[in-house]
Amino acid sequence: GPLLERPLMEVRLGELHTWISTCDFSPQGLLGTVQKAWNSYYAKYINVRRGGPAGISMLLTGYCLLSYSWNYQHLKRYRWRKYH
Questions:
Q1: Do residues 3 and 22 touch, judged by C-beta distance below 8 A?
Q2: CA dist., res. 48 & res. 42, Å (int)
Q3: With contact defined as beta carbons under 8 Å apart, do 23 and 29 qualify?
Q4: Rounded mean pLDDT of the chain?
Q5: pLDDT on residue 11
Q6: Start-to-end C-alpha separation, the chain
Q7: Cα separation of 69 and 63, whole Å?
Q8: What are the Cα distances from residue 15, in Å, to 11, 24, 55, 60, 72?
């Protein structure tokens, strides 16, 4: 199909520059991309008939890692001042 309609995982390395140039980087385009990604994630991992805890646990793990990375610089500076 057309390059614009292909997902990132189906784009070849030589086509990556052209694929990125066809993306919509306006606020509305980015919001649409985030909505599409969330709907895809929700349909694959959360809204399933016989699903396990994988989808929600991945979401919680991502949140924990993101929270830790946000606070890591603060903790690192605090330890340096405390021991040196």
A1: yes
A2: 9
A3: yes
A4: 81
A5: 86
A6: 60
A7: 10
A8: 6, 17, 31, 34, 37
What Å distances lie between residue 75 and 1, 40, 71, 72, 78, CA to CA? Answer: 49, 35, 6, 5, 5
- Give the C-alpha separation, 10 to 4, whole Å: 11
pLDDT over 60 (residue 36): yes
Q: Tell me the two tokens of residue 83.
A: 């021991």
| pTM strictly above 0.70 | no
Answer yes or no: are the C-beta atoms of 59 and 38 closer than 8 Å.
Answer: no
Question: Are 44 and 30 within 8 A, CB to CB?
Answer: no
Q: Tens digits of per-residue pLDDT, 6-28?
A: 888 888 889 888 988 888 899 99
Its sign, for the CA torsion 44, 5, 3, 32, is negative
- Six-digit token string for 40: 């895809």
